[in-house]
Amino acid sequence: MLLRAHxxxxxxxxxxxxxxxxxxxxxxxxxxxGEAPGVPKGPLHRPGQPCLACHGGDxxxxxxxxxxxxxxxxxxxxxxxxxxxxHFIDQNGKTYDTATNCAGNFFVMSSxxxxxxxxxxxxFFGTVADQPVSQPMGSxxxxxxxCAACHGDPxxxxxxxxxxxxxxxxxxxxxxxxx
Length: 179
Prior knowledge:
By secondary structure, this protein is an alpha+beta fold. It has helices at residues 2-20, 23-31, 52-55, and strands at 65-74, 85-90, 95-99, 105-109, 119-128, 131-136, 163-166. The chain is globular and about 55 Å long.
C-alpha cells in the first residue's frame, strides 16, 4: 500500500512538472527580451510580438488570450493602426469583434471567445464613400492565436510580414486614446 501511494505521488509530481516546464515555451518567452523602456506591462506593451507566448494559458502572463496581435497602418511601416475593428468568424459561424488600441494591439480574452478553428479575420477602419474600409486575411487561422507567430518582421521565407490594413502608406490621424 505504501508503495502504491509513493508511486501515485511520483507520477503526480512528474505530470505537474511536465506541464509547467515546457522548454519550447520557456525558450520563446526568453527570446522576447525585456520590456521596452517607458512602456509598462499592460495592453500597450510588446507590439508585434507573439502575445500568446505569455498569455496563452501555459505562459507566465495573465490574463489568458485566445487571439491577440498588432495591426499596423500599412505594409511598409511600423506605424500602429489605432481604433480599428478586428472581426473574427470561426468554423461554426460564431463571431467576435474587438478593437485595436493606440499601440495597434488587440486581444481577445479566452473567457470571452474560444473559437473553433479555422478562424477567418478581417480588419475594418473608417469609411470611404460611406463604405467601411476593410482588409481580409488571405487565409484562415488554423491553430495559432498569436498573429506574430506567422506575421513577424521582416517578411521573407519564414514570415509573411506584419499585419496591416493597406499595402500602401496611409495618413492616419493620431489616436486621442493614446497617453
